[in-house]
Amino acid sequence: MAAKELHVTPAAISHQIKGLEEHLGLRLFRRLARGLELTRAGQALLPKLRGGFEQLSDALEEMRAIEEPGTLAVSAAPSFATRWLAPRLHRFVAAHPELDVTINASTRLIDPKKDDIAPGDALAGSPMENADIVVRFGTGAYPGFRVDKLLPVSVTPMCSPRLAGGKNPGSHPLRTPADLRHQVLIHDNVSFDNGGPLWDAWFAAAGIAGFDTSHGLRFSHAMLALDAAAEGMGVALGMPVLAAPDLAAGRLVAPLKLSLPLKFAYYIVSDEPASGRSDVAAFRNWLLAEAARDIK
Predict the structure, then answer these.
(1) What is the three-state SS of 107-162?
(2) CATH fold of 2-67, please?
């Protein structure tokens, strides 16, 4: 039976058994007229061998899963996934039809403030999200992981064309930073490098003091703030990297020239062992190529 399953002759099986017994210095089988019977040494060895072969089989299956086409799990912050990644993902899918891509939008892909991390919350600081590769908005300081800087980030005031031109009823045109006194400020979940309000940092860079930024509309995600600005509800400090489709379509305009760079940026992060996989490397290289197109 063993010879049939292994597609070899009975003589070959007998030869291998004899060679193993000589190597171990133990008899593993008794040769009987009706066939072979395990000795006590053989009976003791069998469970360990069976377990070892099962582990070897599992390892080989995992290795094949890494190399064979399959599903690539990607995580990114909701605003990035919606505004930057999704509109161009078709190009990766067209270039790699053998891969199924799963996108998970999660706020855990934004570096938390120290005050926001609950004691013992190990997941809060981890850059991974049960994914093969992630795009994280943060500092890029993730020891033990492969990290590639994807896109630098800056913010600038954005609003609808009608609001900028003062065409809404009772509105004032937006031509200088001082004109923002007449506008509703829109806030999102992004803060400045020191953890302070983003609008305060922008006004400081513009050389304007004493501006009360505590009022306005507040949203939990940057994409919601951009949508509100496009609807003429006020002025948002938007990231051009996220607002590019709206700016190109004319839904949003950036009427003021001052752009405030942030220390935080978008980074590609992957586990060191997974970073060399062909599918992970392909997605990482594609992300970097797409970012290079934007920066040009």
Answers:
(1) HHHECCCHHHCCCCCHHHHCCCCCCCEEEEEECCCCCCEEEEEEEEEEEEEEECHH
(2) Arc Repressor Mutant, subunit A (1.10.10)
Structure tokens at 202: 């922008």
| Helix/strand/coil percent split, the chain, to 5 | 45, 20, 35
Tokens representing 149 are 């800087």
Question: What's the chain's Rg over C-alpha atoms?
Answer: 30
Query: How confident is the model over 183-193, as pLDDT tens digits?
Result: 999 998 888 77
* Ranges 10-24, 61-75, 264-278: which has the least confidence: 61-75
Report the predicted TM-score, pTM, of the whole model to 2 decimal places.
Answer: 0.70
Segment holding 32, helix H or strand E:
strand 29-32
Please name which of 156, 158, 157, 160 lies closest in space to residue 232, comparing C-alpha atoms: 160
Per-residue pLDDT tens for 247-285? 999 999 999 989 999 999 999 999 888 888 999 999 999
Token representation of residue 102: 């799963």
CATH number of 153-263, picked from 3.40.1010.20, 3.40.190.10, 3.40.50.2300, 3.40.50.1370:
3.40.190.10
71-152+264-295 has the same fold as 2-67: no
**Secondary structure (3-state) at 232:** coil
Coil, strand, or helix at residue 5?
Answer: helix
234 backbone dihedrals φ, ψ, rounded to 5°: 160, -160
Q: Is 101 exposed, middle or buried (0-12, 13-18, 19+ CB in 10 A)?
A: middle
